[in-house]
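Invent a record, attention on tokens:
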Amino acid sequence: MAFPLDSASITHGIQLAVAPVFLLTAVSGMIGAVAGRLARIIDRARAVEDRARASKDDEFLKRAYAELGELRQRGRLANGCIALLTLCSFLIGITIIVLFLGETTVYQIDSYAVHSFLAGVGCFLLALLCFLAETVIATRLLNFHMLR
């Protein structure tokens, strides 16, 4: 592998590779937010399960099982969101590597950077849809409990 010693091309390669890093900042913030929501979903599910185990009231058990189903669905969406965000981060990391290597070596691999970046952005958009769906379900569940 031939690396040119031209500092201008290396500097330009670093500048190109740093641009996608800003997306990584957004992704890490999203992962933190979704992980916090997932932790609250798990805590709520454990509390509902504990109360359901201690209860003999059929009406309460029916509501508890319905809520646990909603919590399970929300948990799956949150897990899917985290998986998509993780894949997004990986693809953006690949983009950074490919951009840098494309600028600093003789290999013409820039088209791979475009594909990996677009795939990463696609994963980010799908993760946002999962996040939206989870929050809509959470809000619907909140509104349902307020009616009782």
